[in-house]
Structures are given as structure tokens and as C-alpha cells.
Specification:
mainly beta, two-stranded antiparallel sheet
Length: 110
Amino acid sequence: KNKNNNRAGGIYYIHSGRGMLHEEEPIISGGPLHWLQLWFSPDIYADKLPDAFTRMIKPEEVPVIETSDHLVRIMIGHAFNLSSPLLPDWPIQYLHVKLHPGKTIELPLA
């Protein structure tokens, strides 16, 4: 059993490939816990699926752009001349954006 403990702002990347068993359980108790799981099924593999693997990205490894208008964490892909440690084999971009009240942002497309 693999025991990976993630922290707030971190990423636990699972590439299920030909198959993987996993389970999640909170490492904190007694307070709210928020997480987001994104599942993708890219049809990019012409032959058989690759081997499964996981990768833990610590919060401090995630690139951040912060201005007086916004904060952007580049979770997957490229944006604002920065790259996430996660660069999958298919074109995808995931940005976590926090806007300050009344502010706007123009986001680059992947």
C-alpha cells in the first residue's frame, strides 16, 4: 500500500494507464476538507495503454502568478510563461484562479 500524504495546494497525479487500484482518505479530521478530482480519458494511445504511475506535487512546486488583481496557480500545462511540473501527453491546461473583488483577468488558451 502506498501512503502518500498531500498538503493543501498539492497535487496527487494518477496516470491509471493499464489499471490501478487506489483509495483516498482524509489526513485531517474535525474540519472542512475540500478537494477536486479531475478524470480524463484521452483517446491518444494508438496501441496499448502505458504502465500506470503516480506523482506527488508539493504545493511549493506549483508555479504561482500573483498581482494586485488576481492569484493564478498553474496546476497543469503552461500559462504566463510558466510551466506546471505536470505536462501530460495530451493538450490540457488547468489553472486555479482567485480574483480579487471587482477584478478581471484575461487567460491564455493552452
